[in-house]
Amino acid sequence: MDSLGLLADGLASAATPQNLLYAVLGVLLGTLVGVLPGIGPAMTLALLFPITYAVPVDSALIMFAGIYYGGMYGGSTTSILLNTPGESSSVVTAIEGNKMAKAGRASQALATAAIGSFVAGTIGTLLLVLLAPTVSEWVVELGAPSYVAILLLALLAVSAALGASKLRGFISLFLGLTIGLVGTSTGQARLTFDQPLLADGIDVVIVAVAIFAIGEALWVAAHLRRAPLEITPVGQPWMSRSDWGRSWKPWLRGTAYGFPFGAMPAGGAEVPTFLSYLTEKRLSKHPEEFGKGAIEGVAGPEAANNASAAGTLVPLLAIGIPTTATAAIILDAMRSYGIQPGPQLFDNNGALVWTLLASLFIANTLLLVLNLPLAPVWAKLLRIPRPYLYAGILFFAALGSYSISFEPFDLLLLIVLGLLGLAMRRFGLPVLPLIVGVILGPDLEGKLTEALALSGGDVSTLWSEPVAVVCYVVLAGILAVLAVNAVRRRRSATSTDQEVAA
Amino acid sequence: MTTDTTSTAGPPATARVVDRAQYGLAAFLVVVGGCVLLDARGLHRGFADQPVQPYAVPYVVGTVVVILGLALAFATWRGDVPQAEEGEDVDLTQSSDWLTVAKLVGVFVLNLLVVNRLGWAISGALLFAGAAWALGSRTWIKDLAIGAALSLITWYGFYVGLGLPIPPGVLDGVL
Amino acid sequence: MTVVVAYSPDPYGEAALEAALEEAAVRRERVVVVNATKGDAYVDPRFATADQVEDLTARIAAAGLDGVVLHEVVDDVGAAVVAAAESGGARLVVVGVRHRSPVGKAIMGSVSQRVILDATVPVLAVKPQR
Q1: Report field, pTM of the whole predicted structure over 0.80
Q2: Is A236 contained in some domain?
């Protein structure tokens, strides 16, 4: 119960007026961008990076946490009202949610999504509080060789587990690793092309803003949807007694799916939301309603979605490995304050971490309190003309990158990498492996150097620790599965698309 | 660097198509990998006690990037078609509008050329209005007004709120 | 001859439609209802839904008139109304106007303003009853 005592201290420092203000700001901003088309939480965090130059670390992280949770919530609003899931994690919500809205039950769908998110977020954060310190105590024992293995495993998982095409995952990863090479971190200038402005490497913020914001804005500009969509009018979200009765079990089951997947490298939110949907469909007492607007089909996946967001923070805080794009930016933000997430985090910056964890509870509660009454207001946001929306994204992207050092050269990097982001979307390359590669690539090289320096250059040190051996076994297993699948696919020769769509 | 993307529209929906633009991406990867390898050749041995030499990782990364480029070319030849990314605001049923993209990039490049001379307060406003114009807005007085308001608010926001004076450019002394 | 009306599913559009139906009934003219959008926002509340379009058609028929509803995505809504009036050889264009100060008008612009300025035929500007 030590954790809970520390959490209480954290709660006290998170509840200062200033931090509460940042929490409210973060939650509102997060929901706003979740609702708005084309902007996700990862892009928002990247665009808001400049605030880390001046705002104290605890306030900034509290705000970022609010944006993360709020973005997850906001995505469900558009899914339900417009049938256009903003993030892959709310695809499933749209299936039943929009049917409910069309049947005049938009309020109930929004309510079960909001309350389910709250329940899942709270339980997920509680699990995070209990788990993260334990994991970090265990990780702190690990030496550099184990770290090398864990990093390799994380990079492989992120590249191979997402998307239909493994080849594209690896292309994205290695483009990221290439960008990570730029600079003089090893004592010699690599890939700087004698350009002094590249000597410090390419700032992760510029990469993130370019890939998420510029790439997305350009991609949308090339494919702008022209016809407006029909929106379902909303009133105040509310639920009847029978809605509660049908929702609470899916909330809990969704949480049980979401958290572990979020905590796994590359687990993400897509798989658990889908599993939750299938489970609810099988267990429901009203199976005939599925496909026509069953409340269970909204409650379960929405809970899974938010629980996975909480789960993501376990590897981020305890090991220092981001498993989603949003987590990657939070990691970079912490580093910009000189804080290294990972096993030492709880020892070195204990107060900060507990404040952050406590603020997650606050953010979650604020989401429920603010967003239930605000749902109709959020729906109005969808009237912003697209030219202003995307012009605004470009504006803030340019500002954020320019403000790093007031060098137009950074803007040049931004647009060049932005074009890369556009090309990645055109060619179906996932963006997450690239960002993770940029962040973890240099880490991997550093840990490898550390491990070999300690062993005096003896390579066998790399598999001298049990954790490392386990990682390599898992790694080999994943590679074997990939190889078997590739062979099998070649044998079946015909289209593999059905498999993907299933 | 990625001009190949602007050359071709999405593949037509016939059976077994070869997405030729993807050869461009493959070539790009081979070139990038080649650059990394070439750059690594120019690196010399670091300190004797540096177990991972500065060129070690670039050699690995460069080689793999080249191999991935070749693999992509092969996959493209076999009829592999990319699944372009969908999104809330993306309509993939229509052909790609690369002209809008070119306009946006033009506006952006203009901004980076003039930002230090004119200062963010002016270039930012132009960036916003220009981008809105590229995206189809035709109310340019209103767009400039919104852009100017945004850039002034952000300039003062950075100056007062974050304590970061963005170079004022020609408006030095006015702001 | 025809009567063209710029319609949106709100009190202003309703007022315009009512007036247009009355005007058309006098000389048994054809009614052209224009409900267009620039399609530049995610959601445009002034763009009628499919149900509302059906409803409009039914209302024209119920008034015993011949008519058509133009429901489309265009570059400029005002220009679309003017174009509809010119191509259909309209006698009259009806628009619903909202109250705005002169300054507000200058900044925001409006569809009605474009129609009043650009139309080559008489324009009837109506306001919803308070």
Answers
A1: yes
A2: no
